[in-house]
Fold this sequence. Notes:
The complex is a heterodimer. Chain A is mainly alpha-helical. Helix content of chain A is 75%, strand content 2%. In chain A, strands 1-2 form a two-stranded antiparallel ribbon. In chain A, helix 6 (90-119) packs across helix 12 and helix 12 (228-257) runs antiparallel to helix 15. The longest helix of chain A is centred in the last third of the chain and has 32 residues, at 289-320. In chain B, helix 12 crosses helix 13 (276-283) and helix 18 packs antiparallel against helix 19 (404-417). At the A-B interface, helix 4, helix 14 and helix 15 of A face helix 1, helix 3, helix 4, helix 18 and helix 19 of B.
Amino acid sequence: MTQTTQAGVRGSAPDPGGAPRRQPRRTGALVRALAPLPWIGPAIGLILFVVIWPVIAMFQTSREHYSSLGVLIGSAGWNNFTRLFAEADLGGVVVRTVIWVVAVVGMTVLISLGVAQLFNKEFPGRRFARWALIAPWAASVVMTSIIFKWMLDPNNGVVYVLLKQLGVVKNFNTNDTNWLGDPTTAFWCAVFVAVFVSIPFTTYALLAGLQAVPSDVYEAAKLDGANPLRTYWSITLPLLRPALLVAALINVMNVFNSFPIIWELSGGGPGSQSATTTIFMYQLKQSSIGEAAAMSVVNFGFIIVIVLLFLRASKWNSAED
Amino acid sequence: MLALSALGVAGVMALSACSSSSKSSGSSASGNVTLKLLAPDYGTAGGPDSSQTYWQGIADDFHKANPTITVQVTTVAWTNWDQVGTQLQNKQYPDILLGDAPQELAASNLLYPLTDVMSASTISNLIPVFAKQEDSNGVAYGAPFTTSSRALFYNKKLFAAAKIASPPKTWADIQTDAAKIKALGNGTIGYGLPLGPEEAQAESFLWMLGNGGGYVDASGKYAINSAANIETFKFLTQLVKAGDTEPSPATVNRTKDTWAAFADGTVGMAGGSGALIPSITKAGKLTKADYGVTTMPGKTGPLTQALAVHDDVTAFKAGGHAAQIKQFLDFAYADKYQIQFDNEYSLLPATTSASQSLSASDPVAAGFLATVPNAVVYPSNSNWNTVKTKIQQTIGTAAQGTDPATVLGSLQTFASNN
Lengths: 321, 418
């Protein structure tokens, strides 16, 4: 409505109004280009202040030599990086980070595909079930992790109490009840918790995608005699691809940066044997701020790569559409 | 990570906002001086035993006696202690800091020599073995404020149940006793071995001393991977493997895990300081007759020297208030306040006169105090703080599957290169 009236007004405007607009064209273009500034200025300022500046500070810190008490001793050149790459634990930490991201995101997406499919069907109590799924998402990740830590307390964790009653665990405070003390089991416990807290978001993203699939394609498939498996593979999955891609990539970034789960469950320990790069950065911070900053710079590099992949994928997505 | 750095910036902003306002009030024209005191909280922040209350009490008394000087007290929980590092990193120096050893700060030329901020009579009252620790190239840059010494706590109830007649004297005794206690079942732990990040350096040191080892050699150079230390960790590894300790000591912390479990009555033996006593009382599971304290066993016999640790007062030059700091420190080191602190937290005094009067009144403290003059202390190398944090993070793995020679070797490299 409004647009048509405006167009009408403009169309009926007399010539003198149009002529002077044309003469100072260059300044007009500049003014027009800058016109949105008052609106987007605060956002740009905020990004400069909370994103760009810390990044610069991080790069600076990675080239400085601080004592463990935080006193600046002088420039370190590239020493922090040489020391970081000389850390015996670094190789294991990087490999573990890759496993962490792949395992958590892979399992999350697979499970969420199933759950989303289920939630897309009508069944009694669906509304309640959908609400219940939000709980792990709504709860603070730190809180969830602490609860899992309690459930796995070697002395009286509820999981072990149950297993003891089932006869699987023989005695508390032994290797039977040491899942969080052993680096391998601690890591997989963390993976489990990470999947647990990632499923809600992923499920809802996929559910939205499923609901966007028009029902007439399914009817057409039915008429053509496609079986359910074939329908899922040839119709649901391809049409779900945009949602799937977004969900997976957001999860990759989230999981890569995830700090609280591993930190609360095992502290990255024993030593750094269950740490990812994010945890390792924090562990390094205790003894060397500069080296931790160097680790952050490396992490930042990883993130940039992931973001570029994301941008590329979303472009590819829209091109396909 | 971005979110983390953004938070860091916000924190810095908040800190600088605080400091600029306090600075303006600190240098007001009428000759009034505000001293900023920063101390760790040995109690519970916000609780009745918070060290904030303790220091505020001294600050108020002091202000009454010296109306032109106000002491502004800030306490930080030990678990958040790295925020002090952030503060120093941003050049927000307090006037007086209670905390770690002074060498690293002295090396950065931030501190007053002790003689500038404490009168000779107070200095001469400091317990010599600790006072000597404050030196950097022969000059003292700090003063011990509170100390503690380590011994072996054992649970007499569990010892009786496992039919063990006397407390252990040697490593072999620990191993047999721990195995017997372990065999009692119900999740009982034989020996509590907290080699997690909180205090691994102390527990490791206790064991190293038992084999004639330590962090440094006789000349003061780091000797973390000495043959004696490697042998010590080989012993610990098989102790852990046999199931005589917690299953993964490298993730076990002292206060929250081992001491809490000891207070709960489920640990047979554990190294501890006087500070363990209040947690035992608070848990209410063990009476005074249910536990005993004995000298920490070594490989072939009890340690001849106890391990004693201390926290130190240092004074920063940045504020330029040497005279006022001197007045305050002389005031705060009075026996009254030293003893008040030790009663509150079951720690030990740092001055000779306070030790004497505490020994007379408190038999438990007297037992610990008797070991102090002959105590072993941490190294005073200038990078000890940095090395200590690395030890806390990694040394536990040497008792839990990783080859001790590898772990101690990389710590030795770290200590010599940083």
